[in-house]
Amino acid sequence: xxxxxxxxxxxxxxLLAGARHPTPVVxxxxxxxxxxxxxKGADRFFLHTVTIGKNDLATIQKSVKFTxxxxxxxxxxxxxxxxxxxxxxLFAQANTxxxxxxxxxxxxxxxxxxxxxxxxxxVETKPWVQEAIASGFLDHMRGLSVTDNPGSAVTPxxxxxxxMPYFEAEVIAAAVKxxxxxxxxxxxx
Amino acid sequence: xxxxxLRDCDRSxxxxxxxxxxxxxxxYIFAFFMVKTWAGLSPSDxxxxxxxxxxxxxxxxxxxxxxxxxxxxxxxxxxMKHTVDTALLIQxxxxxxxxxxxxxxxxxxxxxxxxxxxxxxxxxxxxxxxFGSLDFAGQWLMKAGIGxxxxxxxxxxxxxxxxxxxxxxxTVRAAMQPPAPRDARSFA
Lengths: 189, 188
What we know:
Number of strands of chain B: 1
Number of strands of chain A: 6
Shape of chain B: elongated
Number of helices of chain A: 5
Shape of chain A: globular
Strand content of chain B: under 5%
Mean pLDDT of chain B: 86
Number of helices of chain B: 5
Distance between the termini of chain A: 71 Å
Largest interface: A-B, 52 and 62 residues
Radius of gyration of chain A: 20 Å
Radius of gyration of chain B: 23 Å
Structural class of chain B: mainly alpha
Structural class of chain A: alpha+beta
Low-confidence stretches of chain A: 13-20
Oligomer: heterodimer
Helix content of chain B: 55-70%
Order of helices and strands of chain A: HEHEHEEEEHH
């Protein structure tokens, strides 16, 4: 009897170890897939990493009242085999009490939004995020420049979406805005 | 002295206590996999999840941004490391600390009926409430930039596990014991 208890405990202990409870994040699209889909026509890819300096950090904080978690910001650059630019993708995140939402923001060589893809949500927010995406508002962000307000694509949804999907649409727009600022301030070729 | 004796309770009470604990363990198993996936099990992984990047507030940060470009194989694009920022930690804390309190309270109700001596009983009750609190204390101290408190969070997780198993074993043993003869029942 005693040995049975000890065996049960030995099996259970490693399984139960640790009680940290990070918010469960759900991957909606893999990063590599988002890059590939956003930069169609590119057959060569480059990783452009920018380590933020004090001056640019001050500009970012002034623009969106946001401090990136990581001083290294990655831009995924797509080119054709002849060297023609196809565009750039970066991943930006906005956090709420319901968890983070991450977007892949693709920019054209003309510095306009080419495509926005939501890559991550949480277990709690996924249905609201999917309902927001299904409204098609991400398509209305295409063509916006770094100084435009992506929230303009959300406003027409008022009354069409219920409260939480609308809220998540606003969060997605906030993530896009962060991405636009990071792109506008940091991406120089 | 406890409030009651589980061994003397109706079978339904025993069944409820054991099933509650087993279901709690069931949930803990998935909590383990969630932690393993999103935070990691080693102190360095836990630190990377909770400790804010030092470089962003480091006075040694260069004035101008610096960049580098290298060819990329899309099949090797690394997924971004999941981190818990202050807003997420507030969310996690407000839910989990409340749930931890409810779990500890229910565990306490069971412990009170196990017939344990007072010092041991109090120690287990203290552990039931204390480890959950220390778990999140460690997370907030890491969020304050003190990465060494990853150990506090990890050890608190182990502490909760041990308390759970102690209560589970005690409960099953008490439930399997035959009720004491009526004239021998005493709560003194």
